[in-house]
Amino acid sequence: MGNKVSKIFSTYLWGNIYAMFLVLALLCVGLKYGIDLYTHHGESIVVPNFVHKQYDDACDMADKVGLTIEVSDTGYVKELPPDCILEQSPVPGKRIKSTHVVYVTINAATAPSLVLPDLIDNSSYREAQAKLLSMGFKVGDPVYRPGERDWVYGILVNGKPVHTGDRIPRDAILVIQVGDGTRNYADTTLIDQDEFDGVDVPEDDKSANDEDDYEYEYKWEVVPEDQDVPDAIEERPLDEATEPEEQGGEKSE
């Protein structure tokens, strides 16, 4: 019994316990200050204004204050030079840590292009206009030409016709050619008479046509009551037929 009590209160045992608590305390303190040191706790930097500055100049400014710049997107503004910063996040004036990254949008050297959809001779003006605007195109006032009303017959860019599948700059203005409801002479199918000049017509067809064009008229004759009525009435052409009054006049003379 005495040996057990002496072991419990021995210096070796309590020394190990004190050492464990000391190590645990050092770990907690080191973890706390280590995280603060790693995350720069309590430190903040005011974000400079990088908008409308060249990308290289903005990177130099960011290095001086301890920030990092990364390009997240590109845009296009015709009036600004290429590689000019258009937008930034976070916004200027916000306080951030030195490890924070500033994302910027830079200006492209050329305008982005879009593929022209299948609209020519395949949609109405209202449908084509809505489709182009939803894709990001710029649509100008339409021009009218003879054709079916409000039907799309063509699209012009800088006065030149474009076709389905062509890549067109997004900042270009598209002019839609629309029908005004009148027909063009060129849209009417005409029969060329020269094509039929050398066509032979069969004799049967000619005689049939001649008979159809020939007019007939009945010749009227006065039949006495004591004579029989003829079984058939004679038919004569119009130019050979005469009126009963004229025949009667000739006989009387």
Automatic annotation (TrEMBL):
<protein>
    <submittedName>
        <fullName>PASTA domain-containing protein</fullName>
    </submittedName>
</protein>
<keyword id="KW-0812">Transmembrane</keyword>
<dbReference type="InterPro" id="IPR005543">
    <property type="entry name" value="PASTA_dom"/>
</dbReference>
<feature type="compositionally biased region" description="Acidic residues">
    <location>
        <begin position="194"/>
        <end position="203"/>
    </location>
</feature>
<dbReference type="Pfam" id="PF03793">
    <property type="entry name" value="PASTA"/>
</dbReference>
<feature type="region of interest" description="Disordered">
    <location>
        <begin position="194"/>
        <end position="253"/>
    </location>
</feature>
<feature type="compositionally biased region" description="Acidic residues">
    <location>
        <begin position="223"/>
        <end position="232"/>
    </location>
</feature>
<keyword id="KW-0472">Membrane</keyword>
<keyword id="KW-1133">Transmembrane helix</keyword>
<feature type="domain" description="PASTA">
    <location>
        <begin position="42"/>
        <end position="108"/>
    </location>
</feature>
<feature type="transmembrane region" description="Helical">
    <location>
        <begin position="12"/>
        <end position="35"/>
    </location>
</feature>
